[in-house]
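// run 5 | inverse folding | seed 20
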């Protein structure tokens, strides 16, 4: 049963998210070792998650907020996420590759161990970008913009209906993205788009529920869908990295074949789990949230034009010369956060 609205909680909830973002940024600034000896390997991930949750609050309560500082805060938070995206992805790939290589038999482990070192060196080279993204002055600007955006935000019934309608449209967009990702022949770009849509909806529902107490009628199982798509993406990304690092190096490429086969199995298993979940998820049919207003429930489904928008260019992966792995080039990629 839904609890009564707590209108006074809109700004305090945003300020709690802001404090969480600040703490994660401080942890990232304090990092000294990057690699296997890192004492806080989740710092970058936590910054990106905190930035996404704060962005979700800004989007969910957009009808209540001051426009200029809200837009400024969203742009700054987007820059943080995009800057830290390649860092987080390189960290995930390096840690996963190191763990898998350590489990290989002797000769294969010796041949492939330098590849993880290549990725860790790449992470260290990105350290400057990481520090700039979470610099104290940048965090203070975000703090200023968020507080200005939420200043005096006390929603009335009409504002809550507008916010609920926005959230219901987000459900429709996510439903369309998941259907496209689950269709036969779906590309990696479509699955990536679906995972991003699930993230946005999941955090938006969290923002709505924390303030209003309405926790029924909204889609369930989003975290599991996000996890399946993320596991499939990580395996596919690591396959691409290993192939690029071993290109032109036949001994290493031969040693990497069992590892590539294992990663391909993991990718296919994650995709199979995703397809099974989409088949069992009732809200993917045509169901709308039970508490949505008539205006929200009648929101049109996404148009075919949106579903067929051009896919982003495929990400680049680290390259290597024969027998001597070279440092991967920085790239604007997304990560698991």
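// decoded
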């Amino acid at each position: 049963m839904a609890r009564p609205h707590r209108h006074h909680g809109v700004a305090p909830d945003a300020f709690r998210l802001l404090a969480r973002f600040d703490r994660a940024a401080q942890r990232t600034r304090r990092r000294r070792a990057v690699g296997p000896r890192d004492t806080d390997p989740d710092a970058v991930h936590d910054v990106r998650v905190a930035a996404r949750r704060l962005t979700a609050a800004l989007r969910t309560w957009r009808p209540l907020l001051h426009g200029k500082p809200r837009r400024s805060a969203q742009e700054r938070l987007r820059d943080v996420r995009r800057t830290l995206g390649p860092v987080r992805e390189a960290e995930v790939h390096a840690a996963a590759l190191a763990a898998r290589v350590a489990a290989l038999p002797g000769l294969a482990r010796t041949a492939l161990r330098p590849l993880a070192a290549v990725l860790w060196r790449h992470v260290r080279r990105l350290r400057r970008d990481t520090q700039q993204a979470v610099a104290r002055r940048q965090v203070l600007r975000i703090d200023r913009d968020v507080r200005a955006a939420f200043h005096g935000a006390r929603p009335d019934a009409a504002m809550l209906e507008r916010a609920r309608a926005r959230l219901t449209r987000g459900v429709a967009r996510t439903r369309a993205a998941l259907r496209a990702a689950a269709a036969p022949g779906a590309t990696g770009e479509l699955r990536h788009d679906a995972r991003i849509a699930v993230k946005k909806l999941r955090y938006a529902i969290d923002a709505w529920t924390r303030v209003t107490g309405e926790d029924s009628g909204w889609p369930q199982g989003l975290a599991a869908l996000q996890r399946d798509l993320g596991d499939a993406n990580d395996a596919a990304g690591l396959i691409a990295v290993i192939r690029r690092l071993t290109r032109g190096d036949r001994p290493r490429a031969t040693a990497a074949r069992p590892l590539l086969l294992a990663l391909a199995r993991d990718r296919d298993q994650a995709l199979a789990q995703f397809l099974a979940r989409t088949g069992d998820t009732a809200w993917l049919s045509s169901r709308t949230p039970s508490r949505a207003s008539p205006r929200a429930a009648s929101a049109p489904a996404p148009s075919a034009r949106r579903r067929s928008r051009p896919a982003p260019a495929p990400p680049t992966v680290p390259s290597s010369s024969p027998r001597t792995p070279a440092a991967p080039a920085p790239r604007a990629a997304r990560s698991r956060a």
